[in-house]
Specification:
With 184 residues, the chain is α/β, with parallel strands linked by helices. The protein has one domain: 3-Layer(aba) Sandwich (Rossmann fold). Helices cover 33% and strands 18% of the residues. The chain has five helices and seven strands; from the N terminus they run αββαβαβαββαβ. The longest helix has 17 residues. The protein is globular and about 40 Å long. InterPro entries: PnrA-like (IPR003760). Keywords: Lipoprotein, Signal.
């Protein structure tokens, strides 16, 4: 494991798939996306939470010079279409924002094991090694079948969303994938 990875997870051992890690705040601050890094964000809906999370991905991409494509989706069928479109574009990272991606990502991302996915502000109930999630109190949705609450709008602030995107992307860049990152 790299020095960053050990500091990030607080251990010299690679975390097991699906484990939740609580990284030391700020350990990801100096991690920069490499030149020509490409991202696609799937944005389900136009609610304030989705808008805040999407803006955080846009901010990260602008700050790091990453190429970003935003694919809006109105419903689950469009989320599935957008996943297929995103994978076909072969970006370095596909980002799904908020509760609206969880159910479809749970079904579809396992079909694309060679693609890295990041879910921000929610998590999959059974992620595969290629899906990393970032959650925090009030933004921990795991799918409609589990009966838990959707994200609380007041929990998804611009600052927290930016922190989540930066931490999640840093984790993926250092091959710490298939885990859930819990921000305090």
């Amino acid at each position: 494991m790299t020095g960053f990875a050990a500091r990030f997870v607080g251990s010299s051992h690679q975390p097991a798939p699906e484990v939740t890690v609580r990284p030391t705040p700020g350990t990801w601050d100096d991690v920069a996306a490499p030149a020509e890094y490409s991202m696609v964000v799937i944005a389900p809906g136009d609610d304030p939470t989705t808008a805040t999370l999407t803006a955080a991905v846009e901010h990260y991409a602008a700050e790091h010079g990453a190429d970003l494509t935003v694919l809006p989706a109105r419903d689950h069928d469009e989320v599935e279409q957008r996943i297929d479109e995103a994978v076909a574009a072969a970006p370095d990272l596909v980002v799904g924002v908020g509760d609206g991606v969880v159910d479809v990502f749970s079904l579809i991302t396992a079909q694309y094991l060679e693609t890295d996915f990041l879910v921000v502000g929610a998590q999959l109930p059974e992620p595969t090694h290629n899906v990393t999630a970032v959650v925090w109190p009030g933004a921990e949705f795991r799918g409609t079948a589990l009966g838990n609450d959707p994200a609380h709008a007041n929990a998804v602030t611009p600052g927290r969303a930016r922190e989540a995107v930066a931490a999640g992307t840093a984790s993926v860049l250092h091959d710490l994938t298939g885990i859930v990152i819990e921000l305090g």
